[in-house]
Write the structure tokens for this entry.
Amino acid sequence: MMTEASAVNPNNGNERVLGLLLTVGGTPEPMVYAVDRTHPVAVVFVCSEQTQTTVVEIKRRLEELLPEGSSPIYKTLIVDDPANLIDCHRRVTEGLAYLRNERGLLREQIRIDFTGGTKAMSAAAVLAAAPDGYRFSYVSGAKRDQSGVGIVLSGSEQLSLPKNPWIVLEEPEVRRMLQMTVVGQWAAAQEIAGLLLFRATPSSQ
């Protein structure tokens, strides 16, 4: 059984991961590892002006690592202010829209990896994707520098698949749905139930 954050088959689930959105920091190794493990057909990099060089390095390493002709389609979105949660959220939302609308991928075929980038970028990735039921990944590792609390050492990476917190922690919506039933507002309760169902199940279009 999959644990809440376990190193497992990266394509475990109802659909193969075809689209991968990654927040990018200054270290290319975790991003290279995530793409290599997942083998998506489209990758969106959300980076800052300063970490565009990391994106170039990620692409270079993947070109060497992946079989000839199997490189995904890349799109890079630059965040104006990587410390600004709203700016980061807008770019992540734009990236998800690109994967859904321009690449034609389903929600369950897309994964968001929030390993890299600033804390604001990682937080924005989860905030933008969690309410609609997207899946997540995070590259962790058994070995780190700085006495075990720093960056994951190259070669010790593990792809963890944390559960979508919005789906796991539905308590506010469930409480509100129950309140609606107590006062006889059945239509409102049904609407909330439909929203919960939408988040928890794969889409059909």
